[in-house]
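EI: anyone free to look at a 216-residue chain?
SC: sure, send it
EI:
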Amino acid sequence: MTQSPRFRPRPGVLIAAAATSIIGLGLCAAPASAHTPNWEVSCSEVTIVDLEAYNGRVENTVTITVDGKDLLPTETFGSSFKKEHLTLPPHTSAVQVSLVVKAGDGQQYSFSDTKTAPACEGTPPQTPETPSQSATPSASPTTESPAPSATPTVEASQSASEAAPSPAGGESSPAADLAETGASSSTPLLAGAAAVALLAGGGLLFANRKRRAARH
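SC: here you go
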């Protein structure tokens, strides 16, 4: 019984099949190696964030933080994302800048990296602010009553003097005349009465002498 000859593939067919398999594997692995994140940081800014060859049919996100605080809040993008010159907040010492990229087509394609941004040269150091001291409470007001002013007394005296009626005809009172001249207003009357009495006494004396002479 004769045996049928076995089929032996040609070497060219084997090479073609192997090439096809390699190309297929390369195409399957292409998305994994195609995700290309690129970013740079200086002392004052994130100079560039360039994300390329991502899957545009899914939702990808990117976030940038500085010492845990958002510099670039979470943004969504498709197949690519690019930002330049994101200014860092003022700092006098090194800060940590973090980039987080989450790929929508698998966690294995996500990316996370942290870079240090040093303080720029010539930046003056910041001194901590000291809390201002509270103002010293003012002294409690004294309970002493203020000294009475002399003005009311003077005004009362002036008012009393203005209210007192002056003598009629503008003549000064006897008391005022006595205070000014040192004598009473009845002094002329008394002097006149004394003169009259003196004259009367002289007349009587003259009459007595005349009587005596007539007797002798």
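EI: The beta strands are 36-41, 45-52, 60-66, 69-77, 81-87, 95-102, 111-117.
SC: 👍
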